[in-house]
Write a structure and sequence with these properties.
Layout: E1 2-4, E2 7-11, H1 25-30, E3 34-35, E4 39-43, E5 51-54, H2 56-61, E6 69-71, E7 75-79, E8 84-89, E9 102-108, H3 127-145
Parallel strand pairs: 2-4, 3-9
Antiparallel strand pairs: 1-2, 4-7, 5-6, 5-8, 8-9
Keywords: Glycoprotein, Membrane, Metal-binding, Transmembrane, Transmembrane helix
Organism: Sesamum angustifolium
Protein name: Early nodulin-like protein 3
Length: 146
Amino acid sequence: MQLRVDGAVYKVGDSAGWTITGVDYEKWASTHSFKVGDTVVFKYDNESNDVIQVTEENYNTCNSEDPIDIFNSGNDELEYTNPGSFYYLCSFPNRCLYNKQKIEIKVSASGNDTTPPTPSGKVNTGAASTLGLLVFASCVLALYLH
């Protein structure tokens, strides 16, 4: 884990990364406390792995149909700007069902977070939230000055 000004950075599976060999991702996730502003990095061989974000129902059944988002760079950095539970699995055959290559990331609010969860469950990169916050701040300032 690395610390950053805006949050911590966690590499899923630590030195092993995102793979089918010897990592209990449920246990790994349970030993970390993820907060808004943190970044989770999935490092893997993208010829034999990927990361897809799915609904809780699809996570529980290892169903890779109709993913919320697809990541396949081999070095995917996901920063969390909203609290909530986020579900990921590998869509390659048998990786999730037989090898348990899936993970739930539970993100808690930081001390100063007032952003509501993203309705779709997608990871919010923050650009829209930042713009919304700037518009809101401008409106408050305009009301104050009048």
